[in-house]
Design goal:
Oligomer: single chain
Order of helices and strands: HHHHHHHHHHH
Strand content: under 5%
Number of strands: 0
Number of helices: 11
């Protein structure tokens, strides 16, 4: 029939698809080849992924281990601080790296606390200068920094009080040396320098008065000693020196008058002597020109004071 002829012609004109043209065995081979290619590509991708991932995992594990060690070190440093083992605390806190910024800042705060606690122990032993030096090393960006500044000023105040006590004891040289420990970063520095200047001026006046006294320059000694003010700790010594020098002036005047009287008496007796050459039976008065008493004790001239370990 016509329909059968048309179908036969269409089948003759259109080729069969490759899939239909392949034999079953060929299709199996093709599928195996395609699977092998896919597996190979997958394996290559997996290998590349692992090549990137494994170092990342190693780096992460290293980071976690370092973090764990830093956390343990911080806990150990805190325990050492609480037990008063400040040297160990400082050494342990120093090991925490800046890589872990939060832990590192906590370690800095811990170092500041340990330094300040250690400085307080020194201050309690009256080693004030050592305490101040240690407190000044507290890092400024830590929690203990403000407290350290307050303690430093307090300890400088104690040093200044010790210096004032030495001044009242008339030991001006040591008072000046002790007060000089107050450094220019203290709020007490300006007032301390003013105080030292006044003490040094008094000491210079006293040394000049004492030097004049030692040279028997009585008027000069008195003039210098009178410059010492009434509120000076040297006032009592100055008054003693003035009184002694005035006594020496009176003593010298009395000796001069006695010598003049003796000369007059000797001249009169010589004119009344008899020509027989009989010697006079009168005796000559003894000289009153004795050496002056020593000056009042010098309250530690410059260089004689010693600075104790305050």
């Amino acid at each position: 029939s016509l329909n059968a002829e048309a179908l036969t012609e269409q089948e003759h004109l259109e080729p069969l698809s490759p899939t239909l043209a392949e034999s079953p065995m060929q299709r199996v081979r093709n599928n195996i080849t395609q699977f092998r290619k896919s597996y190979l590509y997958g394996a290559m991708g997996l290998g590349l992924g692992l090549a990137v991932l494994i170092p990342s995992l190693n780096s992460w594990n290293t980071h976690r281990e370092q973090l764990r060690l830093a956390q343990n070190s911080l806990q150990s440093a805190e325990s050492q601080r609480d037990e008063g083992q400040y040297e160990g605390c400082l050494a342990t806190a120093e090991t925490i790296p800046e890589t872990f910024s939060d832990l590192h800042q906590q370690a800095l705060n811990l170092r500041g606390q340990c330094l300040l606690n250690q400085a307080q122990e020194l201050a309690d032993e009256n080693r004030l200068r050592d305490a101040i030096a240690l407190a000044q090393s507290v890092p400024p960006d830590t929690e203990a920094a403000e407290d350290a500044l307050e303690k430093i000023d307090d300890w400088f105040g104690r040093i200044l009080q010790i210096a004032e006590n030495k001044y009242q004891e008339q030991n001006l040289t040591e008072a000046i040396n002790i007060a000089s420990a107050v450094t220019n970063d203290s709020s007490l520095y300006d007032s301390t320098q003013e105080l030292i200047g006044g003490w040094q001026a008094e000491l210079d006046i006293w040394n000049q008065a004492n030097e004049a006294f030692s040279g028997k320059q009585w008027e000069g000694a008195i003039a210098q000693a009178e410059k010492i003010s009434d509120d000076s700790s040297l006032k009592e010594l100055a008054d003693e020196l003035i009184a002694t020098a005035q006594g020496e002036i009176r003593r010298a005047e009395a000796a001069r008058q006695a010598a003049a009287s003796q000369n007059n008496a000797t001249t009169g007796s010589s004119s009344s002597r008899s020509s027989s050459g009989r010697s006079s039976s009168g005796s000559r008065p003894s000289s009153t020109n004795a050496s002056p008493p020593p000056p009042p004790s010098n309250p530690n001239p410059p260089g004689s004071g010693t600075l104790r370990d305050f």
